[in-house]
Design brief:
The protein is mainly β. It is built from two helices and 31 strands.
């Protein structure tokens, strides 16, 4: 059958009109601002913990942060991800990165991360790779040669070497995961600095404030006996008490027995911080950027009570002008199952933002500049009454060392 030019034109127009009805109008309808807003990518994180990354690693979990993201589709190098791998909200899309090769091993930002909705899309250029290792915790920052320490972080799955300060290589314990590995402290480490992990993806780095034997902001290591006073404990070394572990020099040990509930200040340690220089920094940073760090060892199961750590300023008449305090009770952390003991020294980190005004527990330290005015630190052990959950303590022995204030977050 012969089709005239006019009839052909009518058929063509009908097809075009049908396309408009089937596709264009629904898209226009879905783009109504009351029903659909184009998505926006703000930044990308690995397991929602390291902001501002620009890479994707196969088989790892990532989160896209942004706006109006809910019900978006994710495309990586034009491949759509399985929706079952995605958890979506208006401000985040969390997904499992599938096994996928990069577009180019020689060019940076050659890979595309695209999020799409009916009414719009947003694009971020990234790198698909196996990222270098990243350390965010050292179990004991002052460990001795021959001791095994635990490193926590990311991208440990392809480790090749671990190097301590002074360019001294250590042994990696074979049984490790993508986020946890153990290394043996080598002999001859005399310097402070970062532990460098190298994997098939390159040389790694550590988070701010994570160093081995870091003396930055050191307030007291108890090697000078004149820098403390108190009662209920003493400054000793392992040679004075073989039940306690070896350490770099001397340390403070509070050793008490038969502590009734409702007992305060059984173990009392005061440090005159005016004898030390508080760590300096550039910029106007809040206390949230800093932490009190120290090593601790618990000989017996610690299941009740807490150290009240107080920092403040007292005048020449020993009258307190202001004081901030924090109740340190590691046994109350769920990871210790309500009983805290250690097989060796462990490094603890308390953000300064956790300290509260002693007269008003709702008020934190206002500024780091205010903290620089403090001239004393007080540790006192408190075992609360039975009504407040205190229990009878048969034996108590806790040692502390290397009190220091460290900047743990980088300036933005």
């Amino acid at each position: 059958m012969k089709i005239t030019s006019k009839k052909y034109l009518r058929v063509l127009l009908f097809k075009v009109f049908t396309v408009i009805l089937l596709f264009v109008i629904p898209i226009m309808h879905s783009c109504n601002k009351d029903k659909c807003v184009a998505p926006t990518i703000d930044y990308l994180t690995y397991r929602d913990s390291i902001p501002g990354i620009n890479f994707l690693v196969p088989t790892q979990v990532f989160t896209i942060h942004g706006y109006d993201l809910k019900e978006s589709s994710i495309y990586i190098n034009n491949t759509r991800l399985n929706p079952t791998y995605i958890l979506d909200t208006d401000t985040s899309l969390t997904f499992l990165m599938p096994n996928m090769a990069t577009n180019s091993v020689t060019e940076e930002f050659s890979d595309s991360l695209l999020i799409v909705k009916n009414c719009g899309n947003d694009l971020m250029m990234v790198n698909i790779l196996l990222a270098p290792p990243y350390i965010n915790k050292i179990s004991n920052e002052y460990a001795l040669a021959g001791e095994t320490i635990i490193l926590e972080g990311y991208f440990f799955s392809l480790l090749e070497s671990a190097v301590f300060p002074g360019d001294i290589e250590s042994e990696i314990v074979s049984d490790y995961s993508d986020t946890v590995c153990s290394v043996i402290v080598p002999s001859g480490v005399a310097e402070e600095g970062g532990i460098i992990l190298t994997s098939k993806s390159g040389e790694g780095h550590s988070a701010k404030g994570i160093k081995f034997r870091d003396r930055t902001g050191l307030l007291c290591n108890f090697d000078d006996e004149d820098n403390w006073n108190g009662w209920g404990g003493r400054v000793i070394s392992n040679q004075n008490d073989a039940s306690l572990p070896e350490a770099n020099g001397r340390f403070y040990a509070g050793k008490l027995n038969f502590i009734e509930p409702g007992t305060e200040n059984m173990n009392y340690l005061i440090l005159p911080l005016s004898m030390f220089d508080m760590p300096d920094f550039s910029g106007s940073l809040s206390p949230d950027y800093f932490s009190l760090k120290f090593e601790i060892y618990s000989l017996y199961a610690w299941e009740s009570g807490y150290y009240k750590i107080e920092v403040g300023k007292a005048n020449e008449m020993e009258e307190i002008e202001f004081a901030y305090e924090y109740n340190f009770q590691p046994w109350n952390d769920t990871i210790y199952n309500e009983s805290f003991t250690t097989s060796q020294w462990e490094t603890f980190n308390i953000p300064l933002s956790e300290f509260r005004l002693s007269t008003n527990s709702q008020i934190p330290i206002q500024s780091y500049s205010q903290l620089r005015a403090v001239n004393y630190m007080l540790w006192s052990f408190v075992n609360p009454s039975e009504d407040e959950g205190g229990q009878y303590i048969d034996h108590f022995c806790v040692a502390i060392d290397n009190l220091r204030i460290v900047q743990v977050k980088s300036e933005q």
